[in-house]
Specification:
With 373 residues, the protein is an alpha/beta fold. It has helices at residues 3-21, 34-45, 51-66, 85-99, 132-147, 152-170, 184-197, 205-221, 240-243, 272-279, 301-318, 327-337, 341-354, 360-372, and strands at residues 229-230, 249-252, 258-265, 290-295, 321-326.
Length: 373
C-alpha cells in the first residue's frame, strides 16, 4: 500500500473508533487555537456546501505529513517549488473518500474555479471563494497546516471524524413494506410529491434517480435491451463533458459503445437550442440509436411541433431517434411496460437511500411518503 493511503487508512480507523466509542466527545477540536477551532468548525459544519475546500485541506494535510518540506500552499507544479495537488488528490485522496462514503467531490477538490487558480493559498490568495467566511477559514487552516505548531494528524483525524459524522447523519433507514401494493397512478402521485415538496437544493437529482430506476427495470425485461449494459450513474456534480457520458442515464452496447442516452431536466423548458446542444454529445457517435431529453416541464403542442422538426433534422443527419418529452408522462408510460411496478419502487427506494449526493431531507421525505401511503 502506498504511504498516502496507508496514512489515510490508519487515521480513518482511529477516527472511526473514536466515533463509535462516544458520539458526544469525538467532535471536540481540543488541540487547536481559537482561530483554528473556529475555522475548522465552520468548514466541517458546512461540508455539503464546501466539499472542495474539505477535500483540498485533507489532501494538503496528507501530502504535508509524507513530504514535510513541501509548502502545500503552493499547490500547482507551475508555482515556485510547487507540487500538483490536483493530480495527488485525483489519484489518492478523492478515491479514498469515495471508498469510505465520506463527503467528496466527483473527481477532485481542485476542479472548482475558486480553488484551481494559479496562486498560492496564502492570506492574499486571489481566487474568488464566494463565501467570505469559508475563504477566511480555508486560508486560516492552510496557513496553520504549513506554519502551525499543532500536529498535522490532529487536523486529519478531526476532518475525517466530521466526515464520518456527516455521512452517518445521512443514513436514513428507508424500507418499503413489501406487502403494500401501489397502482401506477399512486406511484405517479408519490413521485410528484417527492419532486415538488423537496428542498430546492439538490432536488434536480431526484428525477434522474427515478429515470435510472425505470431503466433498471426495463433493461432487465425488454428485449430491446438484451445484451446491453446500464452504465452506473455519475455524480450529479460531474458534467457530461467531463465524464464522457452522453446523458444523465446511459445504456451501452456489449462492446462499450453508447446505445441510448437520457438527459433529465428539472424545471427547465426544452427548446430547439437545448436539443441541438444535447445533440453535440453524440453527434460523432454513430452507435447511438435513441436519445431522450426529458423535462419536468411538459412541452405545449406548439412547442412539440418545433421540437419534432429538430428531431427529424437530427434523424436525417445522424440516424438516431431523438425524443423530447415531459418527464412524468414518460415515466408513466414506462411503468405500464414493466411486469411489476413494485420493482420500480424497490429500485427508487434503494437509490434514494444509497445516493451520496442528495440531502437527508430528500431521504426523510421519501421515507414519509412510502410509510404514509
Amino acid at each position: 500500500m502506498d504511504p498516502y493511503t496507508q496514512t489515510l487508512e490508519r487515521v480513518y480507523n482511529d477516527a472511526l473508533n473514536r466515533f463509535t466509542e462516544s458520539d458526544s466527545t469525538f467532535l471536540q477540536p481540543l488541540h487547536f487555537t481559537d482561530e483554528d477551532r473556529a475555522a475548522l468548525t465552520y468548514i466541517t459544519d458546512n461540508i455539503d456546501n464546501s466539499k472542495a475546500v474539505y477535500t483540498v485541506i485533507i489532501a494538503s494535510i496528507v501530502y504535508k505529513m509524507i513530504h514535510p518540506d513541501q509548502d502545500v500552499r503552493y499547490h500547482q507544479a507551475s508555482l515556485p517549488n510547487g507540487y500538483s495537488g490536483r493530480s495527488f488528490d485525483t489519484k489518492y485522496i478523492t478515491p479514498f473518500l469515495k471508498s469510505k462514503k465520506i463527503p467528496h467531490m466527483a473527481e477532485s477538490g481542485w476542479l472548482t474555479r475558486s480553488l484551481e487558480q494559479n496562486y498560492p493559498y496564502d492570506r492574499s490568495y486571489n481566487g474568488q471563494i464566494r463565501d467570505p467566511e469559508l475563504r477566511k477559514s480555508f486560508l486560516q487552516i492552510m496557513d496553520s497546516i504549513q506554519n502551525g505548531n499543532t500536529g498535522l494528524e490532529h487536523y486529519l483525524v478531526y476532518m475525517l471524524e466530521k466526515g464520518i459524522f456527516t455521512q452517518k447523519a445521512k443514513d436514513v433507514d428507508i424500507e418499503r413494506n413489501q406487502s403494500t401494493r401501489f397502482s401506477i397512478n399512486e406511484i405517479m402521485t408519490m413521485l410528484n410529491t417527492h419532486f415538488s415538496e423537496s428542498d430546492s437544493v439538490g432536488t434536480a437529482r431526484l428525477p434522474v434517480l427515478a429515470v435510472y430506476s425505470i431503466y433498471q427495470c426495463i433493461t432487465a425485461q425488454l428485449g430491446r435491451y438484451s445484451g446491453k449494459d446500464l452504465k452506473e450513474m455519475a455524480s450529479h456534480t460531474t458534467s457530461d463533458l467531463r465524464s464522457g457520458d452522453i446523458g444523465d442515464v446511459q445504456v451501452n452496447n456489449a462492446d462499450g459503445n453508447e446505445f441510448e442516452g437520457i438527459e433529465v431536466k428539472y424545471g427547465i423548458r426544452i427548446t430547439p437550442q437545448l436539443m441541438l446542444d444535447s445533440y453535440e454529445k453524440f453527434r460523432n457517435k454513430p452507435s447511438v440509436e435513441r436519445y431522450y431529453i426529458l423535462s419536468t416541464i411538459e412541452p405545449s403542442e406548439l412547442e412539440r411541433q418545433a421540437l419534432q422538426s429538430v428531431s427529424e433534422t437530427i434523424f436525417d443527419e445522424h440516424g438516431a431517434q431523438f425524443i423530447a418529452n415531459g418527464l412524468m408522462n414518460t415515466i408513466k408510460y414506462y411503468l405500464r411496460l414493466i411486469d411489476n411496478t413494485d420493482h420500480f419502487l424497490d429500485h427508487y427506494t434503494t437509490n434514494i437511500r444509497n445516493d451520496s449526493v442528495i440531502k437527508v431531507e430528500h431521504k426523510n421525505l421519501w421515507k414519509q411518503i412510502i410509510e404514509n401511503r
